[in-house]
Amino acid sequence: MKEETVRIAQLSCGPEYSGVQKEIYTAAEAVGAEVFFPDLSLSDIRRNFRDFGLDVKSGDLKLAIARAVALVEGSAEADAVFIASCFRCAEAAIVRNELRRYIHEHSRLPVVSYSFTERTTSGTLLTRMEALTTIARRRALLARERQTGLTMGVDSGSSTTKAVIMQDNEIIGTGWRPTTEVLTSADEVISLALEEAGVTREDLDAVGTTGYGRFLIGERIGADLIQEELTVNSKGAVFLADCQHGPSTVIDIGGMDNKAISVLDGIPGTFTMGGICAGASGRFLEMTAKRLGVDITELGPLAMKGMGEDVPMNSYCIVFGTQSLVNALAEGHSKENVAAAACHSVAEQVFEQQLQEIDIKEPVVMVGGTSLIQGLVRAMGNLLQTEIVVPHHSQYIGSVGAALLSSGFVEKS
Amino acid sequence: MAEVFIYPATSLILSDLVARFGHKPLGTALSVRERIQTAGLDSPPLEMTPDDAKKGLRWAAVEVPSGVRGRMSLFGPLIDRAEAAIIVRNPDFAFGCMGCARTDELVEFLVKQKKIPILELDYPADEEEGIIFVRRVKEFLTGLGGSS
């Protein structure tokens, strides 16, 4: 059955003159969505802009503000909102931030914002658009709180591939491998999970896939659910952390990019995805572990023993981060202190670059492989001044979310 | 006849005034619209590509937002050709409004760098100011040697 087209309202400044409007259309089309510009009269624009009260100078930002007010007030209708403006424009950054917050607080519309350059491609926007359409289209599925039947979730990440088998709301099998060749890694983790669960592929009622390799693996194994990691990970996180009701914040520092998601009742409201450089991701910690001569699993405990405050380290860029790392060791700082400084630096980058773009609401749940690095969790907790929740099986978050959501297809079949 | 750069470049009224007084308007005039259904107030006449933002590097450095550079790829060549300019500040949406205030600042600066005759005006607030506005535009254009 063909799914209904999701209508995404675009509030923007600059995409046409940056030459990226076509990329936005392409990304939306790829996920069965349609981007449109809420139709307003000039007098509506004047009134809505004045009422909102943010006195910006750019005409297109005034238009974006007026359109946001129209969406919230209901004079314009949409299923989701995409806010976009030029990267490096301070005026637009203020508007982007305030509009995202305004729409999130005053409506149920999912919102994603993005700052583009002329190099932005539809591929970069795809996962964000897919998440917007998933939230709009599958709200009922995302509201699912219990896993039923016997289901499997496969998460094909940039660094690792994971699989989880769940039965009657319990995890009964897991598999984990570094990602090499996407399908081979998936086959391996599926075999591991099935073996641990003591079941066969034929026994499974439904299967879900997520992560970068979701389409390839999903098609190969005939998945019932193929869904991007933003919605799936949020679901897995609130399920495992037992905070499916009310607000929460999910932070997933991945191997290649990071996700920060503001969740309400298990459904993402606003989210950001990305990171300027690998210096703000799990890659930098992997590299730090290698340079310190320890396994990545030992980095967390090592960092917990150290004090990073005395070690200058800035991993805004992975090259500068590596330089700081080498300098710190050359200056005679201990492995423990260097490990703690590296964790603090990654947490700081995520805090400065991404967490400013969403509303942080407690509980803050950290998930993904990096949530097992205690030093990183401590650093993030210190920055946010809160106790971070790391649920059990947090490294399997995507697989758990996929297994849980795919059980929505059990009854259907 | 002089080539007169107009800003806001989208102003059909300014474009018309310049042409009426015997000069060639340099702008991207849009017909007056009561409803806005496009991405921006001054959506470009043709689809632009990422290459346009790169062409804009001639007028603005890479650290300048891509939207400003894309606009400069359109307005920069017009400024280069301009022999005179009329700039209207704080125009009403209906008069012709540009989408990006940062581009406004850069365009105004680059026009002034050219040392050509420039008429700078505030958008009129009432009818009386409107009459003075048109009179000053007429005087300026007549002074450039166009037809009266």
What does this structure look like?
Chain A has 413 residues and is an alpha/beta fold. Among the domains of chain A are: 6-137, Rossmann fold; 150-230 and 397-412, ATPase, nucleotide binding domain (Nucleotidyltransferase, domain 5). Helices cover 46% and strands 21% of the residues of chain A. Chain A has helices spanning 21-30, 42-52, 59-73, 90-106, 122-137, 139-142, 182-197, 214-221, 229-240, 282-292, 296-305, 318-330, 335-353, 374-384, 397-406, 408-412, and strands spanning 6-13, 33-36, 40-41, 80-86, 111-116, 150-156, 160-167, 170-178, 206-211, 225-226, 247-253, 258-264, 267-274, 364-367, 388-389. In chain A, the strands form two sheets. Chain A has a nine-stranded mixed sheet with strand order 2-1-4-5-13-12-11-14-15, sandwiched between helices. Chain A has a five-stranded mixed sheet with strand order 8-7-6-9-10. In chain A, helix 1 (21-30) packs across helix 5 (122-137). The two termini of chain A are 14 Å apart. In chain A, 56% of the residues are buried. Chain B has 148 residues and is an alpha/beta fold. Chain B has one domain (3-143). Chain B has five helices and five strands. A four-stranded parallel sheet of chain B has the order 2-1-4-5, sandwiched between helices. Chain B starts with a strand and ends in a 5-residue tail after the last helix. The A-B interface holds A 10, 12-22, 37, 39-42, 45-46, 56-60, 63, 85-89, 91-92, 116-119 and B 33-44, 47-54, 63-71, 74, 93-94, 97-102, 104. Strand 3 of chain A pairs antiparallel with strand 3 (35-36) of chain B.
